[in-house]
Amino acid sequence: MNDANPLSPSSSPSPARSGSIALVGIGPGHAAHMTARAREAIAQADVVIGYVTYIKLVADLLEGKEVIRKAMTEEIDRAISALEKARQGKKVALISSGDAGVYGMAGPTYEVLFQAGWTPDDDVTVEIIPGASALNSCAALVGAPLTHDFCAISLSDLLTPWPAIARRLEAAAAADFVTALYNPKSGRRTRQIVQAQRIFLRHRSPGTPVAIVKSAWRRRQHIEHTTLAHMAEADIGMLSTVLIGNSHTFTRHGLMVTPRGYANKYGVSGEGRVTHEGEKAGRSLSSGLDGWLQSLREDLAAGHSLQALAARDGLPADYLQAALADPPAAETGQD
Question: Is the dihedral angle over the CA atoms 116, 117, 122, 125 positive or is it negative?
Answer without folding.
Answer: positive
